[in-house]
Write a structure and sequence with these properties.
- The complex is a heterodimer of chains A (351) and B (280).
- Chain A has helices at 4-12, 51-55, 62-84, 103-120, 129-140, 180-190, 197-205, 230-242, 249-278, 293-306, 315-318, 323-334; strands at residues 20-25, 31-37, 41-48, 93-99, 124-128, 148-153, 158-163, 169-174, 282-286, 309-311.
- With 351 residues, chain A is an alpha/beta fold.
- Chain A folds into 2 domains: 4-135 and 319-334, Nucleotidyltransferase, domain 5; 146-313, Nucleotidyltransferase, domain 5.
- In chain A, the strands form 2 sheets. Chain A has a 5-stranded mixed β-sheet, sandwiched between helices.
- The chains are: A alpha/beta (351), B alpha/beta (280).
- Chains A and B meet through helix 3 and helix 4 of A and helix 1 and helix 2 of B.
Chain lengths: 351, 280
């Protein structure tokens, strides 16, 4: 039965005017569902954030995240359909991220997607969450095409990819310890600023002087394209222990601005280095940290001066969302790359 | 009507399709069920097994009228997979769904396998209590007390029909947690509170029976030995150590006809609140 499902719908493909993909994303702490038409028109993009729950603990608590996902999943899917003014029966296929992420969280979304695929007899595409982040740019610029350097920078990942002529994706660099977003969260927690750390630090840093405190740029001259943010975090902590007064209200904005600048500096440096090494003329940035205003402006400045075309999606599409999952699913759908209903979930995965 | 039930709350995944006529719903009941012991997760096989059950019954998923699931307590991940699937099946088919408490299912299952014995007891003016207890890890058990009766109680988990007579499985206590090693003592205390002055009467009539069931009796063999201290007639219902979705369906059918197919928001039922260790 499962084997016949994709074929069944594929034959109907010709008659379909519009291709409507329902995307589901539950890889971390946000329950998301979205309906996307033809891989580019976002009809709905619903995100149920759990920040309030995890804020108390200064980071995502996997068991709490899974609990909230299972409570919300059907409501969020229904909301995505309502906002899109689409009935379940009009959906062409369902796409879900099944890797990498928190196992308990992924299982909820994948279970829901399988249930829809099986009961509505429509194809099912299990996609890579990181690849979906790269594809979030295609929602805005569908004609973009391959040959670019991609940076995915979030609370769980900081990786550089090279996407070649035939869409072959190769990881060229990654963090050897903390992800950039993780460093933001941990420093925000250390300074008692709240969770998630990225937006709080971004806001506070906008009032600060980024060159006031000297911060290391870890691995900036390492020769490879890897990152490390753990040492930077420790450097800040030691600095505050040595000079506790820099934690004063007057200094804290300068402190987080300097910290943020160090992270962004390394990200910009390595991403443009990767792009030059590959001989590409395009850079794509995505992931939650791509919402950071300093990152956006530094990347834009550098891209201008180097004559590189830069693509960063709007802030809502930088965060975890299901529109990007639906978008990537759309490309799998038109290529006939359907998944079997026996697919499982994976906490780690290459792109 | 056709009811699809999924129980993924323990290491044995159980899926059942029950078809019955609306009027005499427990008569002429047909069930197709499948049980599968897992080696890893259920995510790989759960759709294929659901498909197998429906295929065996020659029913398409579009014909299902009611979707139900064991909402726990039980294995966290397994329970969530079942709930996620059942909720989404119901949403995509625009049909009602129900989440049934795990202990209700164990009690119903134990009663089903002992219906003849229970009827005999009740006919002779004796009583029959059913005690499901499940292993909730960290050396703790989750349990409650039910009583099989010819009359429908205030908190009824479901009913059976045995030889044209209705047998109601009434919940008579509140869900409770006890240490695995202290279960017998906790049970005695709990039973004493529940029956008050009738307790003596219950135990004096040695033929009043106690039926124990649930995963606790699969995990902790020592409890059975301890139960002998009660010096009372008891049975451990081996066929109700793990839940079977057929009995989940029986509980759901009862709810369907009792409350109507109200839109229900299924929430998982956890034995304890979850508190992360590091709280800031």
């Amino acid at each position: 039965m499962q084997g016949n499902l994709p074929l069944l719908k594929k034959n109907n493909l010709k008659n379909q005017e519009k291709i409507l993909i329902l995307g589901i994303e539950t890889s971390c702490d946000d329950t998301c569902a979205s309906v996307v038409e033809d891989g580019k028109v976002i009809l709905s993009n619903v995100i149920a954030s759990q920040h309030e729950i995890h804020g108390k603990y200064g980071g995502v608590v996997p068991e709490l995240a899974s609990r909230r996902h299972v409570e919300a999943i059907d409501i969020i899917i229904n909301e995505a359909l309502l906002q899109a003014k689409i009935k379940m029966s009009q959906i062409s296929a369902v796409s879900v991220s099944n890797r990498p992420g928190l196992i308990g969280s992924l299982l909820v979304g994948v279970g829901a997607a399988k249930a829809i695929s099986y009961s509505k007899k429509i194809p099912f595409m299990a996609v890579n969450h990181l690849k979906a982040h790269l594809f979030s740019n295609f929602l805005e610029v569908p004609e973009m095409g391959p040959c670019f350097t991609g940076l995915i920078v979030s609370g769980g990942h900081t990786s550089l990819y090279s996407v070649g002529q035939n869409w072959e994706i190769k990881e060229v660099g990654h963090t050897v310890d903390d992800a950039a977003g993780e460093a933001f969260d941990k420093i925000a927690r250390f300074l008692g600023l709240g969770y998630p750390g990225g937006p709080v630090i971004d806001r506070l840093a906008s009032k600060g002087n980024p060159s006031r405190f000297e911060m290391p740029r870890p691995m900036i001259e390492s020769g490879d394209l890897n990152f490390s943010f753990s040492g930077l975090k420790t450097a800040l902590i030691y600095k505050t222990k040595k000079e506790p007064k820099i934690l004063d209200e007057n200094n804290i904005a300068d402190l987080v601005a300097s910290f943020q600048d160090a992270i962004v500096d390394v990200l910009v440096h390595k991403t443009f280095k990767a792009c030059r090494q590959s001989g590409f003329e395009k850079i794509l940035v995505s992931g939650g940290v791509a919402a950071n205003s300093r990152l956006r402006s530094m990347f834009a400045q550098k891209a201008d001066s180097e004559g590189i075309k830069l693509y960063i999606p709007p802030i809502k599409l930088c965060m975890d969302n299901a529109a990007m999952v639906a978008c990537l699913g759309y490309y799998d759908y038109i290529a006939g790359n359907f998944s079997d209903l026996s697919v499982e979930v994976y906490s780690r995965s290459d792109i | 009507m056709h009811i699809l039930g999924i129980d993924s709350s323990t290491e044995k995944l159980s899926i059942a399709l029950t078809s019955c006529s609306e009027v005499h719903y427990l008569k002429n009941m047909r069930t197709y069920a499948l049980q599968y012991s897992r080696h890893s997760g259920f995510m790989k096989s759960i759709i294929a097994l659901t498909d197998k059950v429906l295929e065996k019954a020659a029913i398409d998923i579009e014909e299902i009228d009611y979707f139900c699931v064991n909402r726990g307590p039980g294995d966290f991940t397994g329970t969530r997979i079942g709930i996620s699937l059942i909720k989404t099946f119901a949403l995509s088919q625009n049909k009602p769904s129900a989440g049934i408490d795990a202990l209700d299912i164990y009690a119903m299952q134990a009663a089903y396998y002992n219906a003849a014995k229970i009827m005999q007891l009740l006919s002779g003016g004796l009583r029959a209590c059913i005690v499901p207890a499940i292993d909730i890890k960290r050396d703790e058990l989750f349990f409650c007390i039910y009583e099989a009766s010819l009359y429908e109680g205030h908190k009824c988990a479901g009913k059976l029909v045995y030889k044209n007579r209705e047998l109601f499985i009434n919940k008579i206590g509140n869900d409770s947690i006890s240490g695995a090693g202290t279960f017998i003592d906790s049970f005695k205390e709990y039973f004493k509170d529940l029956l008050g002055e009738h307790l003596r009467e219950y135990f004096e009539k040695q033929n009043n029976a106690l039926f124990f069931c649930g995963t606790a009796f699969a995990s902790y063999g020592s409890i059975a030995a301890g139960l002998r201290e009660l010096k009372h007639k008891f049975f451990i219902v081996k066929k109700s150590l793990y839940p079977d979705a057929q009995y989940l369906n029986i509980c759901a059918i009862y709810r369907f006809y009792k409350n109507g197919a109200a839109i229900e928001r299924i929430m998982p039922y956890y034995a304890r609140e979850f508190t992360p260790f590091k709280k800031k």
